[in-house]
Fold this sequence. Notes:
Elements: E1 4-5, H1 10-16, E2 20-26, H2 31-44, E3 52-58, H3 63-68, E4 76-81, E5 84-90, H4 94-109, H5 121-128
Parallel strand pairs: 1-3, 2-3
Antiparallel strand pairs: 2-4, 4-5
Amino acid sequence: MSVVQISEELDVEKYGKDKTAVVHFYADWSDECKHMNTLFDEMSKQSKYSQVVFARCIAEDLPKLSLNYKVSAVPTFVILKNLKPVDRVEGADPESLDKKLQNQLNSTANNTQPVDPKEALNEREVSANPEFKKY
């Protein structure tokens, strides 16, 4: 699968809905981003990622989208499941990106859901430890 170029905010919803997606926020002037763009293109063609949507956007051209996904530096990769961020890689770290994508694909295969970051910490503690008492 080829890499999709995100040119407006609604493109993320268009390409990432009901899927696992990874969005590369980059800048044309960054050498690290140029290097990662090449690796990102190669990753998108690997059969192990056939179920992943690979997308990229110029972070400075879409400031609201960058802010929405808390992108403060480039390159940044945000991994989404059903449009919700579940993991990220900041910086030029292809090994970490590969590992985190594999983890997300494995969790999909095992039918596990990512933890909702809005879920109350107290609730997670109770479910993880039945002896824990809520006050």
